[in-house]
Amino acid sequence: TSFSTPKKKKRDDGMREHVTGCARSEGYYKIDKKDKLKYLNNSRAFAEEPPADTQVRTRPPLTAGRRSEQRRLLSSFTGSCDSDLLKFNQLKFRKKKLKFCKSHIHDWGLFAMEPIAADEMVIEYVGQNIRQVIADMREKRYEDEGIGSSYMFRVDHDTIIDATKCGNFARFINHSCNPNCYAKVITVESQKKIVIYSKQHINVNEEITYDYKFPIEDVKIPCLCGSENCRGTLN
């Protein structure tokens, strides 16, 4: 039952010739350093000399959907140089690396996974656009359902963004009396959006916070941000 293993042959280019016709069927085998270096040099030379009739792309091509979306965004501010809209376009195609995990301030929080410079868009506050009447009805319903926290963000006098059951990571951002971010309303394609901006440089694993700016009420909500100038309450 013992058969002599046929001697492995090498091709003219120095690479090993597989007797079975498939490298995977012959198991693990060691490659000489000379052969490995020869292969690396050949592949590097091929990569450095692209064909003359092809154009080297510096970035992957946009798909049809992304092209149309980019055209819509560009058309919304044609003739203006509003930096907010330009930044929003960049944020749309290159989102910041963020994660949510347990926070020392309250329950869940949002943390940066990459350094963020000052005055940059961090994340858009996404949710359902509803009117004040619907917001009052939903707030009562959430209390009846036992949902302790509702994630409603006022855009203007008539519009509120509800991210309680339909939103993104932005709803996990906690309040702080000394925040590293702030919220700003911008208009894109005739629609108002809430975007979180960085006030200062944010380091990796630093928690994203902003001031909720709740209206003053008799029933106070305690603040647990722990900053030096903490007001003690959110409202």
From TrEMBL:
It is found in: Nucleus. Residues 96-213 form the SET domain. GO terms for biological process: methylation. Coiled coil: none annotated. GO terms for cellular component: Set1C/COMPASS complex. CDD domains: SET_SETD1. This is SET1B methyltransferase. It comes from Ibidorhyncha struthersii. The lineage of its organism: Eukaryota, Metazoa, Chordata, Craniata, Vertebrata. The gene is Setd1b_0.
